[in-house]
Specification:
Layout: H1 8-33, H2 40-51, H3 55-67, H4 75-105, H5 112-125, H6 133-142, H7 145-154, H8 157-185, H9 203-214, H10 219-247, H11 260-275, H12 277-283, H13 286-297, H14 299-313, H15 323-348, H16 352-359
Helix pairs in contact: 1-2, 1-3, 1-11, 1-13, 1-14, 1-15, 2-10, 2-15, 3-9, 4-6, 4-16, 8-9, 10-11, 14-15
Length: 363
């Protein structure tokens, strides 16, 4: 723990994850608009996109690690402090992206009444903008936290391992097997016994984050998971190339948040930085720690605003760009998007009203 009681490795994971999210969204255009799998720009985009796939699972793991350790004494207080700060920016940014897309991008002549009706439908069905799905998912999980936290605290370490093993089998291993069989035979397999709701979805990553944060894995298990994480970073771009080549279009089998490689990347990264907590705290001076803390606190706000910045300010990597051009374009534009998003958030944070309306009160 650093003097301001922040956990350095958690802050670093947040920063890495928000940078990874920006990379995912920036590289998506080349990957979806080009089927030239041997071009330099496709390979650069595929490589950066592949190694950034840990972003969303790690965000869920961090959320679980932090929120499940708190004591919840009042449902009303929990919703006021935890759920409302997510609902407010969901509404605000859905409106901002909806207006921008409707009247600036599409040049629509939609009347105010028609826009409100359309906006309400899109808000309810998560169709306002691509990255806002995360807020719907995390809000849904937060609504279960008052009960899930009691379940977690009543469980022993062995109980949690049992839950995580079943979740891995149902959500990760079974899905991988199903996807692999479908690509080999064009037939989906359906094993009814694998349809266990409590062991499906992002809740598993949420509880996994709590477990990795609070419990120490055996050395052998840590080594296995860490090494599988490293291997997955190398396998993902290569495997994506071959499955895409076979299908003729981008195949996201190894891109998904439940893909087996994404799982091992996320767990390996979390374990690595947790192990380095003491070393990082000792080696990094107080000013750098303050900067890390500042960027980490702004990560949620950067997530909300970065696509607007990307649409308005960034250039695009050309489909026919050379290896050097594609690399430089990606690095420069990601830096610009991240830098402008962070500075904009900090400027907006100078106003309490703006911080509350736009970011739910988060810094």
């Amino acid at each position: 723990m650093v003097p301001n009681k922040r956990i350095v490795y958690v802050d670093i994971l947040r920063i890495l994850s928000i940078v990874a999210v920006i990379i995912l969204h920036y590289t998506a255009e080349v990957l979806t608009n080009s089927n030239n799998f041997n071009s330099s720009s496709w390979w650069i985009s595929n490589g950066f996109n592949s190694i950034s796939r840990f972003a969303v699972p790690v965000f869920f793991m961090i959320s679980g690690a932090m929120i499940l350790r708190t004591n919840i004494t009042s449902y009303r207080e929990f919703y006021r402090k935890r759920v409302m700060p997510l609902l407010i920016p969901l509404l605000t940014w859905s409106l901002i992206y909806g207006l921008y897309n409707q009247y600036y991008v599409m040049k629509s002549k939609l009347s105010a009444y028609a826009f409100v009706v359309d906006f309400g439908y899109r808000l309810l069905t998560d169709r306002n903008y691509v990255h806002l799905w995360f807020l719907y998912a995390i809000i849904a999980i937060y609504m279960t936290v008052p009960l899930i936290s009691k379940f977690i605290k009543a469980c022993s370490e062995k109980d949690l391992r049992y839950y995580l093993l079943l979740w891995f089998i149902v959500s990760i291993a079974y899905r991988f097997l199903s996807d692999a069989i479908f690509r080999a035979t064009d037939q989906y397999i359906n094993i009814p016994i694998m349809n266990i709701p409590f062991f499906m979805g992002y809740l598993g990553y949420f509880i996994l984050g709590y477990y990795l944060f609070h419990f120490e894995l055996p050395l052998k298990a840590k080594n296995y998971l860490y090494n599988l994480g490293i291997i997955s970073f190398f396998i993902t771009p290569v495997a994506t190339y071959f499955v895409s080549l076979r299908s003729g279009v981008l195949d996201e089998m190894f891109y998904g948040n439940y893909s087996i490689t994404t799982f091992f990347m996320s767990v390996g990264l979390f374990i690595f930085f947790k192990e380095k907590e003491s070393a990082i705290s000792q080696q990094v001076n107080h000013k750098v720690q303050k900067l890390i803390s500042s960027v980490s606190r702004a990560s949620f706000s950067i997530y909300l605003i970065h696509l607007l910045v990307e649409m308005m300010l960034s250039g695009r990597t050309g489909v026919d760009a050379t290896f050097l051009e594609a690399s430089l374009s990606l690095i420069v534009n990601i830096s610009i998007i991240f830098g402008i998003s962070y500075i904009t958030v900090k400027v907006l944070n100078l106003s309490k009203a703006a911080t509350y309306i736009l970011f739910g009160g988060r810094g």
